[in-house]
Write a structure and sequence with these properties.
Elements (H helix, E strand, L loop, with lengths): L9 H16 L8 H9 L6 H14 L4 H10 L3 H14 L5 H10 L3 H14 L4 H9 L5 H14 L4 H7 L5 H17 L3 H10 L5 H13 L6 H7 L5 H15 L7 H14 L3 H23 L1
């Protein structure tokens, strides 16, 4: 299957775009002209990338009247270039009516660009997409790549998905919990609130390593100082990956713009180093101690 499946006459594309722009400028454009909208969607198969972009942006600005034609193309057009452009244009429009078609393309289109573009459009739709993304994450039928896109979309939606995320942190699915932690981390960064941070701290004791590591990473990135004692406790976890994540998080907190008293971090890290037998973890702890010392020295000069 080739990308450009049907020949689009460049002259016709140019003329059509010019006509549409003139009509819109003169306010004579008819958004209910189905034949015109179909032609515009078809022209997103033009071999010229800039021309495809021009049609996508124009259809995006037309908005919801273009949705049915973009949905039809996304679902059935034989040219993947048109399907890709349709998904990207639906991202610009953000019409919830497109959700079923976007979900179908996300899960079943065999073109990787269509797959990713549909995920982006689902993310742009926000809250209506969240239950479906959670179902994808919980299902054993979907690939790691698909679940990765679903987790990214959840994180992109962020606080708009809050009511689902705060509930699903207790999901039986490890994949759901890990993705939820990642999305809650985004909320904690954008709209710092105790509820989000408390969930991240609690996730440090999750039974799944991937969830603990994700939570430690989030607490490090946000430099959440009240989690220091919990991260110190994680330094002694049976899992070396968890210990490594805790050391990295403590390093990030210790080198943040507003670090705590350095002894609060250095003493437990130095004690952990004495007892650590895993080479990778020792390396990270040594790095953390070194970086926090440097931060301490720099602060002394200020």
């Amino acid at each position: 299957m080739t990308d450009i499946q049907t020949a689009i006459d460049p002259a016709e594309s140019d003329a059509l775009l010019q006509t549409v722009r003139e009509q819109r400028s003169l306010q004579t454009f008819n958004p209910n002209d189905s034949e015109l909208l179909k032609k515009m969607v078809e022209c997103m198969g033009d071999s010229r990338g800039m021309m495809r972009l021009n049609f996508a942006e124009t259809l995006g600005s037309i908005g919801k009247p273009a949705t049915p034609f973009l949905v039809e193309a996304l679902a059935h057009h034989p040219n993947p270039v048109v399907r890709r452009a349709s998904a990207k244009t639906l991202t610009l429009i953000g019409d919830p009516v497109a959700l079923p078609a976007l979900l179908e393309a996300f899960l079943h289109d065999d073109d990787t660009v269509v797959h990713g573009s549909a995920a982006a459009a689902l993310a742009q739709l926000g809250e209506p997409s969240v239950p479906h993304l959670l179902e994808v994450l919980a299902s054993p039928q979907h690939s790691e790549n698909t679940k990765g896109h679903a987790a990214w979309a959840l994180a992109f939606i962020g606080s708009k998905a809050k009511k689902y995320l705060y509930r699903e942190i207790a999901s039986d699915s490890v994949e759901v919990r890990a993705a939820v932690v990642g999305a809650i981390a985004k909320i904690a960064q954008e709209e710092p609130e105790e509820a989000a941070f408390n969930l991240l701290v609690n996730a440090l004791t999750d039974t799944a390593e991937i969830v603990r590591v994700e939570a430690a990473s989030a607490l490090g990135i946000t430099a959440y100082k009240p989690a220091i004692s919990n991260l110190i406790e994680l330094l002694h976890h049976a899992s070396w990956e968890s210990r490594k994540a805790a050391a990295l998080a403590l390093m990030k907190i210790g080198t943040s713009e507003d670090p705590p008293e350095f002894s609060v971090l250095l003493e437990p890290l130095e004690a952990a180093l004495v007892n650590e037998s895993e080479a990778q973890v020792r390396q990270v702890i040594q790095l953390a101690i070194s970086q926090i010392h440097k931060q301490s020295e720099a602060d002394d000069w200020e």
